[in-house]
Each structure stands twice: as C-alpha cells, then as structure tokens.
Amino acid sequence: MNTGFIGLGSMGGMLVRALLGRGALAPENVWAANRSQSKLGIVVIPETVARPAIGLASGGPAMLAYVLQSVAEEAVRNKSELSPELARKLLRETAGATTRLLSEANMTTEEIIRRVAPPGGMTALAIETLSSFVPQARRTVFRATSERTNKAST
What we know:
Distance between the termini: 23 Å
Order of helices and strands: EHEEHHHHH
Number of domains: 2
Largest sheet: 3 strands, mixed
Strand order of the largest sheet: 2-1-3
Shape: extended
C-alpha cells in the first residue's frame, strides 16, 4: 500500500526528501498532494483514502471559510448594528480559538461542541438546527466532487 502526504509545506517537503534520502521511503511508494500555500503540516494517509482526504485537505479551508463567511453575513443582516468588520473580527478570533482547541488542547470536535453547547442553550439549538441541514449538504458536496473525479478519470 502506498503512503500519501497531504499539506506539505517547505518543512514537510524537507522531511519527505530526508526520508527518501535515507531509504526510509521508496519513491514508488510515496505520492504527495503538495500545496505551497499549505500550513496544514503533514498527514500520512493510506492510498485507499486519497481522494476524500485530498478533498478535505485542499478544499476544507475554503469550505470552512465559506461557512464562517455565511455566518458573519447572516449575523450582520440579522442585527444591523453589527458591522461586517466586527463580525469578521469575531469570526477570526473564534476560528483561531477553535483551531487552538483542536491542535494545542488536542480536543475533538465532539468535545468542543459538548463544552460550548450545553443542553437547552442557544448554541445547542443552533447545532440542532444545523444538524438538519449540514449532513445533506455534506453528502451533496462529496457526491458532486466524486462524480467530477470519476468523469475526469474516464
């Protein structure tokens, strides 16, 4: 089984070259989804999950940014006193804090939701509402991108 590397930045590239140079990895068993702008670090994946993993790693930041942008825009529409600039600043801070909880505190998304959305609260209501739309949207996105990939490979 081949091994893949997603999110290779310059440091990741140096690591892969070092592993190849030491013979720890054979060139024919390595592929890389290399995006120079990536700050994701390295995630080693089996070849069998390459397509969805690449979709998450390469499209994930844009999809998350789109959701954040949509939330900010709706908050501004809902409360005219909230400026777009303040909404974007709040979301940047929130996204940064969430990222730190995931990476530095090593929390799972489920743990974050449990801590931030106590039962009966407004955030729990928001999560409940989202849970009736997000799974269908997610399936639609992955189905559409999978179909395009399948068409391109035939």
